[in-house]
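Thread title: Can someone regenerate the structure for this chain?

I was given the following input by a collaborator and told the matching structure tokens would be attached. They weren't. Posting the sequence so someone can regenerate them.
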Amino acid sequence: MILKKIDELKGGEILARNIMTWDYQIILPEGITIRNDYINKLKELGIAEVYIKEETKSDEIVILKSETEEVIRETVKDILERHTYQNNNELSELSDAADNIISTILEEDQVVEKIFDIKERSADIYEHSISICSLAILTALKLKVEIKKIHEIGVGCLLHDIGLRYTTVDYNNKDMEALNKQELSAYKKHPIYGYTSLKDEPWISELSKSIILYHHERMDGSGFPLRTKDISFECRIVNVCDAFDEMICGIACERRKVYEAIEYLNNFKDKKFDARIVDVFLGFTAVYPSGTHVLTNEGETAIVLSQNKDFKDRPVIRIIKDKDGKEVKGEVIKDLVKVHNIFIEKILD
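Best answer:
Regenerated them for you:
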């Protein structure tokens, strides 16, 4: 952890401590990725310095590079924030944004062979929509869904939560069970609000519209708003990706670690979620993303450096503290695929 002046920030740094007001209200939480608009806002608030996490060398592999994601996010945000109920002329531009994400993913070398680092984070609905768009597109590619439907999945994902713009419910890092009856009812109606606002639009396919309406439905009928079990395969892809990303972002639930979200999907596959889709999705999702601090069974503290393709829970790690808590000098690298008697016991916050 190092202290940096606001003027030294370039965007992309990870905040190491909460930034709070004089009365202890959190402005930005620890762990969030600092964006350029955050830097400008902090300057306006007169905040001169912040603590950020020190960069660690890793072979992190992400689906969308941060600079690409930022450009797409600003495009999506600009379009959606200009949107008002049933004034949908500019929303068609999101079709191009979906194609941009598809082409960016396809440009990755051996995209279907990689294990990706997907990290828990706080996120707004724009970042969340781009994230599940990327996840759903990658999952659909691996499932060999035809490209026309992949495009429609992408458009549906970018618009899936548009109904949240018509509610005032605070759903950030808050379990739905903590909402009162009126708030819960309003929140559960957001797929209907979104679908209703777009159902007559000729430029949106029926598949994209169904994703907006059904993204919270479940195979066992336990979802909402319709509690239907009749969900298309493409919608089931989005169901899995949306549920995972909501958990690691803390959208209508308390934020969870990646391994906890993975465990949830595994526990409910073939019940709430399509098992084939879950297996493909988890096949490219690292259990311990690069940069994660972990404790080994030998009591050593380590940081995850990179992934092993066929062993998602056996990454390459660098030991930074020995079993007595003393800092390790020099580089001690252990590939857990090659070192069979060492395993990760838990993640360290």
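The chain has a mean pLDDT of 90.
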